[in-house]
From TrEMBL:
Coiled coil: none annotated. It comes from Paractinoplanes durhamensis. Gene3D superfamilies: YVTN repeat-like/Quinoprotein amine dehydrogenase. The keyword rRNA processing does not apply. It holds the Pfam family YNCE. This is YNCE-like beta-propeller domain-containing protein.
Amino acid sequence: MSDLSLPTHVLTEIDSPIREARLTGVDELARFAGGNDLAMAAAARSALERLTQDDSRSVSAAAAAALERTAIRVRPERVDFGQLAPGTPRIVADVLVDGPPLALASATVTVSGPGLRAMLTGRQLRILWQPRSEWLDGSVTVRGPAGWADVRVTGQVPVAAAPVSRAAVEAQLQAVNTTVNYAAYGPSRVTVLPAPPPRRRLGGAVLVAGLTALVVLGGVGVAWSLLGRPDTATPTTAADLLPTAAPVAEQSPEASAGPVAPITVPKEVLAHRIASLGKPALIATIKVGNEPEGVAVSPDGRTVYVANQGAKVLSIVDATSRQVSSVTLRNTPRFVAVSRDGRKVFVSMYENDKKTGSGVAVVDAAGKKVDGYVKTGDAPFALSTGPDGNLWVPIHGAGRVEIYSVGDQKPAGVITVPPNPHAVGFSGDLMRAFTANHESNAVAVVDMNTDKLLKSIPVAKAPHSIAVSPDGRRVLVAGFEANAANLIDAVTLKTTGPFAVGRAPQSVAFAADGKHGYTVNEVDGTISVLDASNGRVTATVKVGKSPRTIGVSPDGRFAYVSNGDDDTISVLKVGE
């Protein structure tokens, strides 16, 4: 890579005979290596590689450290599938691929190990093992212009199983992959598959019996696995991970002859291993700006962003220390979204006439400063970053959603939906987007492959907010004027409900494990907690005055609720 892509002053610094100048040059190169200009990033890494051979030990060490900081990374670096039941057709784990934009540019994936397959989509590395032997000790390697990273993959089938033919495996996989892209290894759903015949240990205890279920847990680092039905309620067993809406299959006489040994899912491969609580607890209140509205949590869960309407300020809350800093914005902030890599924060803005000042502020998360503003249609509402990596902005003042690229915020598309869209959620596996359309009393379903409207679904009056479960299978909608919520099956698009909640449900969200949903009830000053399988309210939790929106931390432990009349956010413990 030619150094011509680098600024002249940087070339002067790294060629200087003065050590301090070269160290300054290393810092500049590190900044370019992490930037969005891929040509400059590649040139910067090439220069850093040369500087690792510098005569000065401090310069060479600084260059090596800079290369490490801007290299491709995987989290976790090891996936241990643990012990699987004999006859398990497959098990899948999702791993996060991290690093600057260059790290993923033209990245390729190679695998080593019997029965291993892998696919990289954006920053998600999906690893699938179809057991072909008793042991697995393999690896998946991601290579790109910013180096390479390995994921070690291990697993065991402790008891030899009857061989499964290729045709049988393909038939099982095809049965699961009937609604989405087959290359994506199937949708996030529960499917009952035939089990192998019962097997016994030497001591006579039944190891496997009955049916096994394919459990899919959405999110980064989450394993999909085929699990036996446990006979005890042990917290670390598969039973505690099974969705409550899982199909129930009849047991054969042989299956009911004895207890079924639980299969333990390795905790280290589960990002969403926290179990959501049927009754969350209020544990803290944090003072933020005047009249907080939108709330968003960073992908690493360390930062909470709050849009304060009355102060024209974005509050930045350290989730650990609960210290608050702020960024002043040009116009009144309304709602917040964070890019999938956590580097940029997007804040929708407009004044009370729903026209003046309409746009999106782009905030640099690390520098805590405004990078710029994007002009949008009138009254941009609850914006969100989609699985396509773009920023989706519902335009309340018109029946449309505007799409912008996250990197440079250039327009990437416009989708017509019924008036007036308030919020947008996504099912990544199904490639469907859902918008809550306030004045149309409907949810719009958009095919993300074509950006076309598939269907408009009637729901409870004045849908204000929408959320899609982590597995992409259920959609929760708040009917603001109906004091109710609806659930929608993301595949069949069938609606259940309405379910009575508190008064004026303003916002909705799902728990990280998908077992519970939340509605923020503005008039009552409460949060309704719903069983996501049937819509039943399991608890009502008091928060502050005039609560507006809710954000759930990615690990599932906490939720943050903005209280518009208290100038605070409530911190709820929602999982453990």
